[in-house]
Design a protein that fits this description.
The structure is a single chain. With about 375 residues, the chain is of the alpha+beta class. It is built from ten helices and seven strands. The strands form two sheets. The protein has a five-stranded mixed sheet. A two-stranded antiparallel sheet has the order 1-3. A hairpin with a 4-residue loop joins strand 4 (about 275-280) and strand 5.
C-alpha cells in the first residue's frame, strides 16, 4: 500500500513538472518571437532543461534541448519583419551551443547521481547484511558453545570415573570423544573470532614476549597429538646452536594461537614417523619463525589462496580443517605489523613462516624496571 502511494505521488510530481516545463517554454518562446532577433532570450531555456533533467525521464530532457535549439534558431526568420545580421546569427548559434552543453552536462550529472544512489544502496545493503551475518554467527556460536562445554565436562567426569569404574577400552573411546568435542569447540571459537576481527578489528594486549618460550609451550601442549601421529617435533635456532631469546612486542595469547594453528597444520600433514621442525631465527629488524613439515608440499596454484578465509583447496594438504586457522593466523600476524607466508621445501615438505618486528631495547628495559622484585 505504501509503495502504491509513493508511485502515485511520483507520477503526480512528474506530471506537474512536465506541464511546468511546457509553460516555461511557452513564456520564453513568446518573449523570443515578440522581440527583435537581436534580443536573444534563448538562454532562458536552460532553466526548464535543468528542471526536466532533474525530475523527468532522459528522453524528455533530450526533447526539451532539441525544441529549445529549434525555437532559438527559428527566431531569426520569425517574425520576418527584421533584417538578419551576421552578429545575430552568431549570438543565436552560441545560445544553441550553451543549450546543448547544458543538456549534455545535466544528463551526465543525472547518470552520476543515479550511479551514486545505486552505490549507496548497495553499501547500505552490504552493511545490513554484514550486521545480520555477525548477529547470526554470534548467536549460533554461543548456542553451540554451551552444549559442547556441558558435554565436555560430563565426559571428563566419566573419564575421571566419578560415576563408576571404566575399562581401558572405554577410557580410550571417551578420550576420542572428548578430543573430538574439544576440536569442535575450538572451531566454533575460531569462527566467532574471525567474524569479530573482520567487523571490529583485532584487539591486542601487547607487551614484551619471547617467541621462543611461546613456541616451546605450544609444542609441549601438542606433544600428545604429535605422539598419536608418530610425528617428532624439533627446534632449530638458525645459525646458533644455543637457545635464543626472540623478543617482540605482541599479544602472547594471540601469538600462541598462531603457533597452535601452524604446528597443528604441520603435524596433520606430515606422514607417520615424519618430523616437524620449528626454526626460530633472530634478525636485526625482524624475528622469523618457520614451521617446516615433511608432508607432500603445496600445489603452486594453491599457494596464493592458503591464507584466505574458508579456503581448503583440493590437494592432500587441504583435506582437513575449516580453512579458518590460517586465515586467523594471518589476521593476528598482520595486526602485529608482521607478515606471514607459505612455500615449498626442497625436496619435499612445506614451510609456513611469519616475521614480526624486533622489540626495541627500551621497551624491554622498561618492562624489567616495572616488574616486581
Amino acid at each position: 500500500m505504501l509503495n502504491l502511494k509513493l508511485a502515485i505521488f511520483k507520477s503526480d510530481t512528474r506530471l506537474r513538472t512536465f506541464w511546468l516545463v511546457i509553460g516555461l517554454f511557452a513564456v520564453i518562446a513568446l518573449l523570443e518571437f515578440m522581440t527583435p532577433p537581436d534580443y536573444v532570450f534563448g538562454y532562458l531555456y536552460i532553466g526548464p532543461i535543468l528542471l526536466a533533467s532533474a525530475r523527468l525521464p532522459r528522453i524528455v530532457t533530450l526533447q526539451a534541448t532539441v525544441v529549445a535549439s529549434i525555437l532559438t534558431i527559428l527566431n531569426i526568420e520569425v517574425p520576418g519583419s527584421y533584417a538578419v545580421r551576421v552578429s545575430t546569427v552568431a549570438s543565436r548559434l552560441i545560445a544553441i551551443l550553451a543549450l546543448v552543453v547544458t543538456g549534455v552536462l545535466s544528463d551526465r550529472n543525472r547518470l552520476y547521481q543515479q550511479a551514486l544512489s545505486q552505490q549507496q544502496a548497495k553499501f547500505q545493503a552490504q552493511q545490513k547484511l554484514a550486521s545480520m551475518r555477525e548477529d547470526f554467527v554470534s548467536t549460533l556460536t554461543h548456542d553451540l558453545k554451551t552444549p559442547l562445554l556441558g558435554a565436555i565436562e560430563t565426559l571428563q567426569a566419566l573419564e575421571r570415573e566419578n560415576f563408576g569404574h571404566l575399562l581401558p577400552e572405554q577410557k580410550k573411546v571417551l578420550a576420542t570423544i572428548i578430543h573430538s568435542h574439544q576440536n569442535s569447540l575450538q572451531l566454533v571459537e575460531t569462527v566467532l573470532d574471525v567474524y569479530r576481527n573482520d567487523v571490529e578489528g583485532l584487539k591486542l594486549n601487547k607487551k614484551p614476549v619471547n617467541l621462543v618460550e611461546i613456541a616451546e609451550e605450544v609444542a609441549a601442549t601438542l606433544a600428545q597429538l604429535a605422539c598419536s601421529r608418530s610425528v617428532h617435533i624439533t627446534f632449530d635456532h638458525g645459525e646458533s646452536d644455543w637457545r635464543k631469546y626472540l623478543w617482540v612486542y605482541g599479544d602472547a595469547f594471540q601469538l600462541q594461537r598462531v603457533f597452535v594453528n601452524l604446528l597443528t597444520n604441520a603435524i596433520n600433514h606430515s606422514p607417520r614417523g615424519g618430523k616437524v621442525e620449528v626454526v626460530l631465527e633472530a634478525g636485526s629488524s625482524c624475528h622469523t619463525a618457520k614451521i617446516i613439515d615433511s608432508g607432500p608440499g603445496i600445489q603452486p596454484q594453491e599457494a596464493p589462496n592458503l591464507f584466505k578465509r574458508f579456503y581448503q583447496g583440493h590437494s592432500d594438504r587441504q583435506a582437513k580443517g575449516s580453512g579458518l586457522g590460517l586465515y586467523l593466523s594471518r589476521q593476528i600476524i598482520e595486526a602485529h605489523g608482521g607478515k606471514i607466508w607459505a612455500e615449498n621445501r626442497s625436496p619435499h615438505g612445506a614451510v609456513f613462516a611469519f616475521q614480526l618486528p624486533v622489540l626495541p631495547f627500551h621497551f624491554l628495559d622498561s618492562d624489567k624496571t616495572n616488574s616486581p622484585p
